[in-house]
Automatic annotation (TrEMBL), chain A:
The keyword Hydrolase does not apply. It is found in: Cell membrane; Membrane. Key component of the proton channel; it plays a direct role in the translocation of protons across the membrane. Pfam families: ATP-synt_A. Its main location: membrane. Keywords: ATP synthesis, Cell membrane, CF(0), Hydrogen ion transport, Ion transport, Membrane, Transmembrane, Transmembrane helix, Transport. This is ATP synthase subunit a. Belongs to the ATPase A chain family. It comes from Novosphingobium indicum.
UniProtKB/TrEMBL annotation, chain B:
InterPro entries: ATP_synth_F0_csu, ATP_synth_F0_csu_sf, ATPase_proteolipid_c-like_dom, F/V-ATP_Csub_sf. The chain crosses the membrane at residues 6-29, 50-73. F(1)F(0) ATP synthase produces ATP from ADP in the presence of a proton or sodium gradient. F-type ATPases consist of two structural domains, F(1) containing the extramembraneous catalytic core and F(0) containing the membrane proton channel, linked together by a central stalk and a peripheral stalk. During catalysis, ATP synthesis in the catalytic domain of F(1) is coupled via a rotary mechanism of the central stalk subunits to proton translocation. Key component of the F(0) channel; it plays a direct role in translocation across the membrane. A homomeric c-ring of between 10-14 subunits forms the central stalk rotor element with the F(1) delta and epsilon subunits. Keywords: ATP synthesis, Cell membrane, CF(0), Hydrogen ion transport, Hydrolase, Ion transport, Lipid-binding, Membrane, Transmembrane, Transmembrane helix, Transport. It holds the Pfam family ATP-synt_C. It comes from Novosphingobium resinovorum. Belongs to the ATPase C chain family. The keyword Nucleus does not apply. This is ATP synthase subunit c. It is found in: Cell membrane; Membrane.
Length: 261, 74
């Protein structure tokens, strides 16, 4: 991409079929094994290794077991605070969701480029985060209707609403409910994409100013590089926060389904 | 005005939304810190609500980025 003399910040999000799988079709749909699938598989494999290495059930935990138990305890506490005693059964789901997104976000930020690999953040695609958010949303709907039957619709009419206001409030609450899967997926995808575009734009400043001449490199390249290091640290924070927010909002929505307000 | 130029101008104006969302996110954390310093004992229990507020404020800024991206690339 630097060959044309201009760095394309969106190039890093291209999905390419890998290992000659671009001809794989099922019922007319292309199901090629892409770089996105590869990094999903890597994230899942790393997560499996991380959890399997810590699931030793020792009475006095070692470092690794302690690390895994910190995360499970964190998810457990989040569910207890937001859903209550009924939330215990969702710990496996929220834990998988949180850790998968966390691993994916961090894997995309790893400086693997220096080894010649091309890290790909699949959470920067709405098709990936959208499916995760639809998964959460479906669980909320299924649990809500299974537990409260048609009484679940009272979610859209909060307690103590004056009768005159009910039609208006119902529509507003319904829209706010239906927008949830979009906002949930959109937030993660845009936050990851914006961060990666920003890093790419700043790095293109460093590269093109370095190619131009030494004076320009000193004026534009070096400050951009220093800013980039700072933004990298910020992106690490954002990667953690976005995974946390995704899991937290799923907990909040599950609370609506479990305990109608 | 050329339609392409208007699109790029619109994408630039969308950055105003991102700037305003930064005020919102700053407000969320500033108010939390203000309250947390007055009553540190209650602060930890409210961290979940802090991040819900942060997520809501941030989403609207990210939406302006989406609009800018749509204007340029779609």
């Amino acid at each position: 991409m630097a060959a044309e003399g201009k760095v394309d910040p969106m190039h890093q999000f291209t999905i390419q079929p890998m290992f000659g799988s671009d001809g794989w079709n099922i019922a007319g749909y292309n199901v090629a094994f892409t770089n996105s699938s590869l990094w999903m598989a890597i994230a899942a494999a790393l997560l499996f290794v991380f959890v399997a290495g810590g699931a030793k059930r020792q009475l006095v935990p070692g470092r690794w077991q302690m690390a895994v138990e910190t995360f499970t305890g964190f998810v457990d506490g989040m569910l207890a605070a937001n859903v209550g005693a009924n939330g215990k059964k969702y710990v496996p789901y929220i834990f998988s969701l949180f850790m998968f997104i966390l691993f994916a976000n961090f894997l995309g930020l790893m400086p693997l480029g220096v080894l010649g690999l091309h890290p790909f953040t699949f959470t920067s695609h709405f098709s990936a985060t959208g499916v995760l958010s639809i998964l959460s949303f479906s669980i909320v709907i299924i649990v809500g209707f299974a537990k409260h039957k048609l009484h679940f619709f009272s979610l859209f009419v909060p307690h103590g609403t004056p009768a005159l206001m009910i039609p208006a409030i119902f529509v507003v609450e319904l829209i706010s409910f239906l927008v949830r899967p979009f906002s949930l997926g959109l937030r993660l995808f845009v936050a990851m994409m914006a961060g990666h575009v920003l890093l790419e734009v700043l790095s293109s400043f460093v590269i093109s100013s370095g190619n131009a001449n030494l004076g320009l490199f000193a004026i534009a390249g070096v400050p951009s590089f220093i800013l980039m290091v700072g933004i990298c640290a910020l992106e690490l924070l954002v990667a953690g926060i976005q995974a946390y927010v995704f899991a937290l909002l799923t907990c909040v929505y599950l609370n609506d389904a479990e305990n109608l307000h | 005005m050329d339609a392409e130029a208007a699109k790029l101008l619109g994408a630039g104006f969308a950055a105003i939304g991102a700037g305003l969302a930064s005020i919102g996110v700053g407000n969320v954390f500033a108010k939390f810190l203000e309250g947390a310093l007055r009553n540190p004992g209650a602060a930890d229990a409210q961290q979940g609500r802090l991040f819900i507020g942060f997520a809501g404020a941030e989403l609207l800024g990210l939406l302006s980025f989406v609009i800018a991206a749509l204007l340029i690339f779609a």
